[in-house]
Amino acid sequence: MINITGKIKNLYNRYIPLPDYYGDNFKKIHAFLSRNQKCSREQIAKYKLDSLKALVAHAEMNVPYYQDLFKKNRIASRDINSLEDFKQIPVLTKNLLRENLDRLKAGNYKNYNPVWTQTSGTTSRMTALYRSSYHESFRKAAVWRFFQQFGYDFKQKRVSLVCRNFDKKSKLSELDRIENNLVINTYHIINRRNKEVVENIRNFGPRLIWSHPTPLSIVGEYILANDLPPIKVPLIAHYSEIMYPHVRKILEQAFQARFIDYYGNRENTIGAWGYSDGIFFEISEYCHLEIDNPPDPKQPNRGDIISTSLHNYAVPLIRYHSEDLGVALDYPNPEIAYPAFQLLGGRGKDLLLTRDGLTVPYFLAYIDKMNFNKLKKYQMEQVSLDEILLRVVPNERYEKAVDESLLLKYAEQAIAGKFRFRLEYVDDIPLTKNGKYRSVISQLAIEAVS
Predict the structure, then answer these.
(1) Taking 70 as the threshold, does the pLDDT of residue 372 lie above it?
(2) What is the reported pLDDT for 88?
(3) Same domain for 373 and 299?
(4) Which of 57, 61, 115, 126 is the most buried (most CB within 10 A)?
């Protein structure tokens, strides 16, 4: 009986339409978001402002943390009538979130059927959080609109590379029949079980791969190093990390896919999407993003990314500090009715500090432009305001006698002569404990924006 019941359940999960599984809220929100793609810039901006005003009024009436904060700063919800007014509300940092989690819960918290989640723990220890079930439905609908605008639809095959756990005995992959999603635990990728990973992906035949760039590039390196035929995938949707040019080259050769990008975090589930070029368009029906607190007064549009999710009434996180840095771009594409920003990285982790302020290291893009394709990987570690230790993993085309001086010359030119470079040859660049590739290490840059 148990086996028969299990088979019936598997069949049901396989064939039930995904919107029906997600429920009525999802279907209504998904239909709303689909219609909104035809709305004007003004209509979308009005919806966002109205949603922010309603959220602030709710917080003022129901959330102890904001009741005290508003009284202390003499803020009243009736006075929030523009995005500029909204900036009166002090920023909520990760430390404040941890210290005040219970007081951030609405008095009528349970009415919103809260869903448990947690921070990712990539920058600090994990923190337990809650989102309203309506907000969770909105998150799913926003992600599916993102997928569908690039041609990937419900129930089509997907492979997701995620860190499930760090257990050696855990399954390498599991099939989520509800979404037709093959979930591969990146723990096993970092520990080099890539022959099995490649076989799993190839045999499943996905239309989309959803992954951080780093673990997928490890799989791609394995495909190329072993002269295996590419796994042709229509779309790769990546998130959480910047797609560096050398990583893109590996993935282009190994998967021959089109790249799209999603930006978010677990605690406030920021929603923004892009064409994998570092520019993201806000999903304004779902969240409000600001660039605030510029570390360099000469560049007022560059600063901290501050986020507010519009629909989490259970535990509102208003003006939450994402710990990422970006540049406000206003509306760069006349055909897209959503504001945009450029992602620079996480709290200085992708930046260098010069005597003239922070800068983005365009080293790899520059040597790519100069057709210097002789490195497998590289890493810059800022030693001082004037010196960079450049670690490189050369490929078989690299000839030290000829290429070393040229590499150092290009490195200096790429960063406008602001540093002297010291070269170190290494066999590999180790990943972080979270399985990410760090191309830049600069404690000075991190301290400059902290």
Answers:
(1) yes
(2) 94
(3) no
(4) 115
**Shared-domain flag, residues 334 and 356:** no
Res 189: pLDDT = 85
Q: Strand 181-185 and strand 158-162: pairing?
A: parallel
Over residues 353-365, the mean pLDDT reads: 73
Q: How far apart are CA 216 and CA 223, in angstroms?
A: 11
DSSP 79-92: G--SHHHHTTSPPB
CA distance 161 to 435: 11
pTM (two decimals): 0.79
Domain enclosing residue 338, as ranges: 13-145+263-345
Place of tokens 């432009």: 369
Residue 338 lies inside a defined structural domain of this protein: yes
Residues 369 and 318 in one domain: no
Residue where a domain terminates, one of 345, 376, 397: 345
Higher pLDDT, 2 or 328: 328
| Counted domains in the chain | 2
Is the four-CA dihedral 108, 110, 115, 119 of positive or negative sign?
positive
Dihedral of the alpha carbons of 392, 398, 403, 409, in degrees to the nearest 10: -40
Whether 136 and 269 map to the same domain: the answer is: yes
Give the model's pLDDT for residue 302.
Answer: 82
Residue whose pair of structure tokens reads 């919103």 in the numeric block: 112
- Domain end position, chosen among 345, 365, 387: 345
Nearest by Cα to 275 from 306, 235, 246, 322: 235
Residue 239 and residue 263 in contact, taking contact as beta carbons nearer than 8 Å:
yes
**Residue 366 belongs to a domain:** yes
CB 187 within 8 A of CB 164: yes
Asked whether 217 and 437 are in contact (CB, 8 A), the reply is: yes
* Cα separation, 120 vs 240, whole angstroms: 10
- Residue 122: per-residue pLDDT: 43
* pLDDT single digits (tens) 147-158: 999 999 999 999
Report how far apart, in Å, the C-alpha atoms of 398 and of each of 373, 395, 426 are.
Answer: 9, 6, 13
Same domain, 138 and 267: yes
Together in a domain, 341 and 377: no
- CATH assignment at residue 22: 3.40.50.12780
> What are the pLDDT digits (tens) for 15-53?
789 999 999 999 999 999 999 999 999 999 999 999 999
Task: Give 97-151 pLDDT, tens digit per residue.
Answer: 889 999 999 999 999 998 887 655 444 345 678 889 999 999 999 999 999 999 9
Question: Count of CB atoms within 10 A of residue 246's CB?
Answer: 20
Which residue in this structure is represented by tokens 């929603």?
271
